[in-house]
Amino acid sequence: MAPRIAVIGCGPTGLYTLKNLVSSATPLAITVYEAEAEPGKGTPYHPDINDPAMLSNIPSIEFPALIETLVQWLERQSDEDLARYSIPREAIDEREFYPRVVLGEYMRSQFLRIVAAGKENGHQIEVLERHRVIDIALQPQDIRLTVQRGDGAKFDAVFDHVVMATGHNWPERTEIRPGYFVSPWPATALAGIGNGPVGILGTSLSAIDALMTVATARGAFCFDAAGELQYQPAAGTEDFHVTMMSRKGLLPEADFYCPLPYLKPQACTEQAIDALIATGRHDLLDDVFELFRAEIVAADPDYAARIGLSQLELETFAPAYYAERTESDPFVWAARNLAETEYNREQRHTVPWRYAILITHEIIARVVPHLDERNLRRFHRHFKSIFVDDYATVPLMSIRRLLALRRAGKLDILKLGKDYEIVEREHGAAVIVGGKAIDFDAFIDATGQETLSATDLPFPTLVAQGGVRKSTTPKAQALVMGNEPADVVRTGGLDVDEYYRPNLAEPLSNRLYCAAIAFLLHKQPFVQGITSACEIGETVASAILADVEQGERPALLQLPA
């Protein structure tokens, strides 16, 4: 009998896992369970979830190819289809950002081709849409799933390997009370918002998504005679106004030009980080910061001098990094940053210090699983945000739209600081800052996906049987002489090995692969987006195929630096 493999969820991670599985020369019996009606699109890119105005956060050049690249797929679309996507043929470019729903269409088409190719290669592939896995039970030799069909009927199925690629964790209800939304998705949930004041908690791309949904329902973006983007409010929307807010009150910066794939760092290299890890110490964070400091100095000594890098420590680097933006009006900064970014793209110029931070973030992430409790807390509190800010830049069009809304008098940015309060109202909410209450008819929490832990999994048997546990980290200063094992504490996320399998204490099957990104962020803080989905899918598939084809411990794929 062919090895039985289940893939739960067919968003990006499930898609890349499937792509690599069907390359096997050994016939496999693969079942794909997808809760939605169209497997392959993925919730973050599905038309039922996203507004057409929502842009993806990845340019085509960074989107790992499936059967074909995103640009190749776009180039073979008809003029009618491109017009439906609002993409001029001459605008197709590998560094361009496209609407989320376009990426969904691309992935759906690739999914169908992957399934067809897999069947041609001799695999049995069953795709069950509108089927939700509601429980997982590890057994000594296999894994039992409980599945609920779209009509409510339930059944059990048993597999040798199970890939849990469940993706984002969405709330059951978006509008939890009148006018208060705990997520910008699904975008259709925001349709009932009126034409009064709207508050959006967050200023990242998720918050911009929410803003675009409500703004395009009340007006339109268009280019004026000078070629500048403007926002034209619809009649009757005079009272419509949005306030975006965050602790720092900063807008994200525009996606900057840089060489891809990444060049090698000069000082903060994989070899240097791995040498620190090899010491067996867990108080490594200050040593890592020294390597990071050396990288910035080597790449951009003028920037290092400007922010006084030689006098900075790990706890003081972030304030210096944000200082110029914090002291500027966020819209003035956005306009200046946009102009700089457009010029640099034309000149194919890379800002050295920005690129140094970008190319070191994944390398520095290698040390995070080895940090003790104290240093892990320091990393998350003081260091992580600057990497996220640097790589989570947004499409240039997003910045242009923000500036257009500002010129139209429809957008403000509010700096909350640390001391603020969100108060429920009969409809919407009020935000109290500095003793002043600001009322909003509608309030949207757009702060993004939270890090989840073992007990958050929607599979009661798996949790109850101890099939998954929170991840661990060494206690600070607990390592004793003689290389004795350190005491550990459970800190959050999922406790998995390098192949994303739960570290089990019981004699149960270890062929469950926890590839849901929201449960990995605690120890892998930069595991987000399409590229991470591709890397996880490759790793999981290689582990499964090694087990199927050789019966040996799989060799971990070499991931890009």
Structure description:
The chain has 561 residues and is α/β, with parallel strands linked by helices. It has three domains: 204 residues, FAD/NAD(P)-binding domain, CATH 3.50.50; 128 residues, 3-Layer(bba) Sandwich (FAD/NAD(P)-binding domain); 122 residues, no CATH class. A six-stranded mixed beta sheet has the order 8-9-18-10-13-14. A hairpin with a 5-residue loop joins strand 11 and strand 12. The protein is globular and about 65 Å long. The C terminus is likely disordered.
Give a summary of the structure in a few sentences.
The protein is of the alpha/beta class and 561 residues long.
Report the CATH topology name of the largest domain: FAD/NAD(P)-binding domain
CATH class of the largest domain: Alpha Beta
Helicity level? 25-40%
- The CA-CA distance between the termini, in Å, is 39 Å
Mean pLDDT: 91
Low-confidence stretches: 478-485, 552-561
Largest sheet: 6 strands, mixed
* Form type: globular
Number of domains: 3
Count of β-strands: 21
From the helix content, strand content and strand pairing, which structural class follows?
A: alpha/beta
Largest beta sheet: what is the strand line-up?
8-9-18-10-13-14
Q: Approximately what portion of the residues adopt beta-strand conformation?
A: 15-25%
- How many helix segments? 15
- Give me the Rg, rounded: 24 Å
CATH architecture of the largest domain: 3-Layer(bba) Sandwich
CATH superfamily of the largest domain: FAD/NAD(P)-binding domain
